[in-house]
Write a structure and sequence with these properties.
This protein has 332 residues and is of the alpha/beta class. The chain has one domain (15-222, 268-307): NAD(P)-binding Rossmann-like Domain (Rossmann fold, 3-Layer(aba) Sandwich). Helices cover 48% and strands 11% of the residues. The protein has a 7-stranded parallel beta sheet with strand order 3-2-1-4-5-6-7, sandwiched between helices. Helix 3 runs parallel beside helix 4 (76-88), helix 3 (50-61) packs across helix 11 and helix 5 runs parallel beside helix 6.
């Protein structure tokens, strides 16, 4: 019996050609400046700033029909994107989606599918937040907000988009986690727990969606200078204001450091690495795309963990009834 791999399981999905193969082999810096995304419908969450805003602009300029979503409309960032779309004649549409709102997620995805004329080609779950501090001081308000945004949000979006993708027998889901979804730094609150959860949910979905021709890729950025730092600092200060002394008293030095820390981080790295990496993966032939993609010019401590994890999954379940799904995702 011939070996089953993901390319054969994704029956009926055509390869995208030599350009895709060339693009896929390039590293993230400048890898996808000329990538053609014509004909792709792409919904991105968290487009008011950071990676989401850069993706919306970049993908639209590459020819994609982009649905740039953000919460709390109307807002200046939405007006800026609409003006850009008009000035540059981009196929870019702003849709209100708060990823913590069930109704907005369902309505927003439905509107995008209406404008796209069917199921989406690509969903990018990018929206995310963070707070700092030891786990003990993370009250239920902070904990619920992080999990609702970073885990339940991508789950809501996937549930809304998958029926349309399954009907087309094709699609791609990108979930933006972090290298802190595989390794931990003390004092980062519930950020790592939520990103670990998103990593696990993404990998399980990748296996389950093989028969439907839908691929899942986990993007694992290192530190980049985006607005997440300022937003995290504000949320952390709010948390400290309401924290009880019986919890904070055990972490005096760590909390003092938190109070001194301002917004900003990521050094001089280029946030365009993330849109470039995602565009390069979109351009790859179906069935060859990676499950995980670490993105950063500096150290990537998650790489050996990713390699061991893949080896364990294949070794544990590769010869079981789940084997074809596991081997397809890990391209073995």
């Amino acid at each position: 019996m011939p070996q089953i791999n993901r390319r054969t399981l994704l029956a009926g999905v055509a390869a995208t050609g030599a350009l895709a193969a060339t693009t896929a082999s390039s590293h993230e810096h400048g890898a996808s400046h000329d990538t053609d995304m014509n004909g792709k419908s792409v919904l991105i969450t968290g487009c008011s700033s950071g990676f989401g805003r850069l993706m919306a602009e970049s993908f639209a300029r590459k020819g994609a029909k982009v649905f740039a979503t953000m919460r709390n409309l109307p807002r200046p960032e939405a007006d800026e994107l609409r003006a850009l779309a008009e000035t540059e004649s981009l196929d870019l549409h702003v849709i209100e989606i708060d990823v913590t709102d069930d109704a907005q997620v369902v309505a927003g995805v439905a509107e995008a599918e209406r404008l796209a004329g069917g199921g989406l080609d690509v969903l990018v779950n990018n929206a995310g937040i963070s707070t700092a501090g030891p786990i003990e001081i993370q009250d239920m308000e902070a904990t619920h907000l992080l999990f609702d945004t970073n885990v339940y949000g991508p789950h809501r979006l996937a549930r809304a988009a998958l029926p349309g993708m399954r009907a087309r027998k094709s699609g791609q889901i990108f979930n933006v986690t972090s290298q802190l979804g595989r390794v931990m730094v003390p004092g980062f609150g519930q950020y790592s727990p939520t990103k670990f959860a998103l990593e696990a949910m993404s990998e399980q979905m990748a296996y389950e969606l093989v028969p439907h021709g839908i691929e899942v890729t986990i993007i694992e950025p290192g530190g980049y200078p985006t607005e997440i730092w300022d937003n995290a600092n504000a949320l952390t200060l709010e948390l400290l204001e309401r924290a009880e002394e019986k919890h904070t008293s055990g972490y005096t030095a760590m909390i003092e450091q938190m109070r001194r820390s301002g917004g900003g981080g990521g050094g001089n790295t280029d946030p365009m690495d993330i849109p470039n990496a995602i565009a390069a993966i979109i351009a790859m032939p179906a069935g060859t795309r990676p499950l995980r993609k670490p993105v950063h010019p500096g150290p990537k401590p998650q790489i050996p963990i990713n390699e061991v994890s893949a080896k364990v999954q294949v070794g544990w379940l590769g010869e079981s009834p789940y084997g074809p799904l596991i081997k397809a995702v890990h391209n073995v």
